[in-house]
Specification:
heterodimer, A: Formate dehydrogenase/DMSO reductase fold, 0% strand, B: 173 residues, alpha+beta, Alpha-Beta Plaits, 2 domains, four-stranded antiparallel beta sheet
């Protein structure tokens, strides 16, 4: 196995740390008072969240007629946001599970934050279909429970129901994976805190973890199993999301390429979001020794490869529309590129396929401001991808007399901004109350050097 | 029944690994080892058998998949038969996604709760006060003094070779 401290590979943790330095560096920001910067970001996020709460309350009280939908475009902003947020969630599981199975040790610096991001993104995603139901208090009808209507069961053959199961399983398993990963670190914080409420809370949460090797041995087995379960799960989730579209007969949706195309896009957008958050977090929380330029570089390479896959999917879709010889399909694709929503289509192409090509250059990957900008651009591009797929396929269908346009209303935009408010509020709270870097995993992966001279604490002591 | 144990503290995984191997080769009883992170190869050094939790995972996963397949079939074809798009009554492809999700959900939760069960973990459990720094930067090897012939001096002597920081005798109940 290659040693990560050789000259060939840059070290995972820089700055010549000892084990207790790692503990201190990651735990100390949590014990300190939040900075003015944190309060600033937090108040903006809460304000956005409140705006979202007002918008959601209004649209539920009034009815979703306040959206810009019409009888031709029945899915637009809301479902775009749903797919956008689910996609963002995927990078967390990719980093924590898929890279774990591939033994990529650099993942330890970013997996905790990426998993938290997954949880919050899936929460944001879940809100949109709930609102779309119009009567969200009846959402439990999606669950197969014995009821007084027959019992009338749910339709297990519908992709929309698959989605309910996929998203809720994904949320639950991501939460369990995250919590299990946190256990050793919660114990570390417990042992660092002075007796008091803080210690009691962490003592309750860490389930009496004491670092016993027998527990570690079982824990590692369980972690591997969870990674093995989460990997097919993450692919299934976006596959099923894509089937919401692919099993319909609408030209532009009815395509077998959708599952891999959606999964690649999801991971692409998720990596962009991880990069956005990590570049800020390492600066604000002074974690430059843990999230090094090497980590950013590797995530950029992953993002670039996913971007190329997405580009390939765009090309394949277009080619198959031409090659398949279906007039309706050809029309939809020409309409995408040159119709009324051409601006959205070309924004998508430039943001997702064009600009990320800059990441081929090492100098670009080494420049954090540039990477940050590219990550934001990819986030925007991936939102437009979903918008293009959903709206352009619907707005001009088989019957020209029912062609229509679509523009979001202020309520829809406020709801979307509100979802960002929820996401960042949760993330900022997470940064304050939990270690943002997996302490135990970093210690295990970093191969820290032995303290220079072995210092005997005292001679052999005899207890009575 | 109370017994005496020898607690050896180290500050690097390499020392701990070598010491654990040596202690085991000498035929001494390793009560447990406490480490701040999962030390690679420690299970082999301690002679731990592979965990049977994989079987729990497998059984839970199978139960989830088969149980959900049966439930989907029972609801859609037996309890209230509904023809959806002319699909056959036993429609495996369209039943597979939910069955898969149920398998993952049950396997994941089953395995984690089984871990909590076998490792005796519950909210609010107080850890054994071996050495608080084992969750920070110390590696602790606990050797059981199995009989009267246990020679503390010579074990200590042996552990010094592995840069042991501290050796302590303790009475545990």
């Amino acid at each position: 196995m290659p040693d990560s401290t050789t000259t060939l590979r840059p070290p995972l943790v820089t700055g010549d740390k000892t084990l207790s330095d790692v503990t201190r560096d990651i735990c100390e920001p949590m014990a300190r008072r939040p900075t003015a910067l944190w309060w600033g970001a937090f108040s903006i996020s809460v304000a956005a969240l409140l705006m979202g709460v007002v918008a959601v309350t209004y649209q539920i009280a009034t009815g979703i007629g306040v959206w810009g939908l019409n009888k031709t475009v029945g899915w637009a902003f809301d479902i775009t946001n749903f797919v956008f947020w689910v996609g963002i969630g995927h990078a967390g599981t990719l980093i924590s599970a898929v890279l774990f199975l591939f033994r990529q040790k650099w993942r330890t610096a970013v997996n905790r934050a990426a998993e938290a991001m997954t949880l919050f993104a899936v929460m944001c995603a879940g809100i949109f279909p709930l609102i779309h139901m119009g009567r969200p208090w009846l959402a439990f009808w999606m669950m197969p429970y014995p009821n007084t209507r027959g019992p009338l069961w749910v339709n297990f053959k519908s992709p929309l129901l698959w989605d309910v199961f996929a998203i809720s399983t994904y949320l639950l398993i991501s939460a369990v994976f995250w919590y299990v990963g946190l256990l050793p670190d919660l114990a570390t914080i417990r042992d660092r805190s002075a007796p008091g409420w803080r210690r009691r809370i962490f003592s309750l949460l860490c389930l009496g973890w004491d670092g016993s090797a027998r527990t570690w041995h079982r824990y590692e087995t369980v972690y591997l199993l969870l990674a093995g379960l989460a990997t097919p799960l993450v692919f299934s989730v976006h596959t099923i999301v894509s089937m919401d579209f692919a099993t319909a007969v609408i030209p532009g949706w009815h395509a077998t390429i959708f599952p891999p195309y959606f999964v690649a896009g999801a991971i692409f957008s998720g990596l962009a979001m991880v990069l956005t958050l990590m570049i800020i977090a390492r600066k604000v929380m002074s974690l430059e020794d843990y999230i090094t330029p090497m980590h950013i570089d590797r995530m950029c390479k992953l993002m670039l490869s996913m971007g190329c896959l997405v580009g390939l999917a765009y090309g394949t879709e277009f080619f198959i529309a031409f090659y398949g010889g279906n007039g309706f399909e050809q029309f939809v694709f020409l309409n995408r590129a040159f119709g009324p929503f051409a601006w959205a289509y070309w924004t998508m192409v430039v943001c997702n396929v064009g600009i990320p090509q800059l990441l081929w250059f090492r100098r670009v990957r080494a420049s954090l401001p540039l990477v940050f900008v590219i990550a934001i651009v990819v986030n925007i591009g991936m939102w437009f991808e979903r918008f293009v797929i959903i709206v352009t396929s619907l707005h001009r269908d088989f019957l020209p007399s029912s062609w229509a346009g679509y523009a979001p209303t202020i309520v829809e935009i406020a709801t979307f901004i509100g979802s960002f408010g929820l996401f960042f509020t949760c993330f900022l709270i997470f940064c304050r109350i939990a270690p943002v870097i997996a302490i135990a995993e970093v210690k295990g992966a970093a191969h820290l050097k032995k303290p220079h001279a072995p210092q005997r604490e005292s001679g052999a002591e005899k207890a009575a | 029944m109370s017994s005496r144990v020898l607690i050896a503290t180290f500050d690097h995984e390499d020392d701990l690994l070598a010491a654990t191997t040596a202690v085991r080769e000498r035929g001494l009883r390793i009560m447990d080892v406490y480490t701040p992170y999962a030390v690679h190869g420690l299970d082999r050094a301690m002679g731990l058998k592979p965990s049977r939790l994989t079987w729990v995972c497998f059984v839970c996963g199978m139960a989830g998949a088969l149980g959900m397949l049966w439930f989907e079939h029972w609801t859609a074809a037996i309890d209230w038969p509904i023809d959806v798009g002319g699909k056959p009554w036993f429609a495996l492809p369209s039943d597979a996604p939910v069955a898969f999700e149920a398998a993952v959900l049950l396997a994941g939760f089953g395995t984690v709760f089984a871990l909590f069960g076998v490792a005796r973990m519950w909210p609010g459990k107080q850890p054994r006060k071996i050495y608080p720094r084992t969750t920070d930067d110390r590696f602790v090897l606990v050797i059981g003094e199995t009989n009267a012939a246990f020679d503390v001096q010579s074990v200590e002597q042996m552990l010094t070779k592995y840069d042991v920081l501290k050796v302590e005798e303790q009475l545990v109940t």
